[in-house]
Request: fold
Amino acid sequence: MQVIPRPAQWQAIRLQLIHSDQTLGLVPTMGALHQGHLDLVSRSLEKCDYTLVSIFVNPTQFNNPEDFAKYPQSLEQDLKLLEKAGVDAVFLPTVETMYPSKPRIKLDFGSLEQILEGASRPGHFNGVGIIVSKLFHMIQPDIAFFGQKDLQQVAIIQSLVRELSFPVQLEIVPTRRELDGLAMSSRNRRLSESERKQALLLYESLSDAKDLLIKGHAWEKVKKSAETLFEKEEGVTLDYFALVDQEKFELLDAYDPAKKSSLCIAAFVGEIRLIDNLPINA
Ligand code: AMP
Reply:
């Protein structure tokens, strides 16, 4: 497995891949890898001749400096996992490489970024859009792999690729969960034992709401009962609980089985902000 710190070192390999007609898969990550990341890697290994994983904790997508400072890192273990998985290369750039100067460009995703994560984390999707654009330019993948776990991010990146004509195909991989249903996340490592138990409330409330909606209960009531569940749990604060049209990524105020819809949630468990989502009829 090649470890590549700078894009200049990558260019020669990229040219060789083109000359030998090999397809390149990119899996962008922020490290602290878990099985969810490895599912993206497996999909790339299946679909592409050559797989590159990037590990970069991108400062510009953190709206909360403490969240950035405390973001989990486990580089040594990550490299072992990737080597074992059969990854061909890892791109490990420094902040100076990715940001020789502070970007002045602002990406505006319009209504897509005015709700949910965009509303709760100002500037987050601008940072995501900029880092993904930089990675696409530097690495030049044929296919890039992203997780459904970050559903709104998927909508943002689809819009980025479409509107800026990146010649990159996107592959979206389903959310990997722990046995009890908690969505895997690097941030789960920061949960205490008791918080880990409370974190299950996110998945439970999504699953309950999905069942109720399928049975025909009104969204307004379903939402209210999820909110009440969170109000009763000390140390856990709901940020949002929403129903979205999965294709347009718009908020819905009623469930319509004819529209592909997903439930989305964000909540603080202690100080840790977790997100999750569940497709209802996708
Ligand atoms: P991150 O390192 O958290 O920025 O995530 C890197 C990629 O892995 C993103 O495309 C995420 O959506 C994806 N990802 C994170 N957690 C999961 C999960 N539990 N299942 C599937 N994909 C995930």
In short: The chain is about 40% helix and 20% strand.
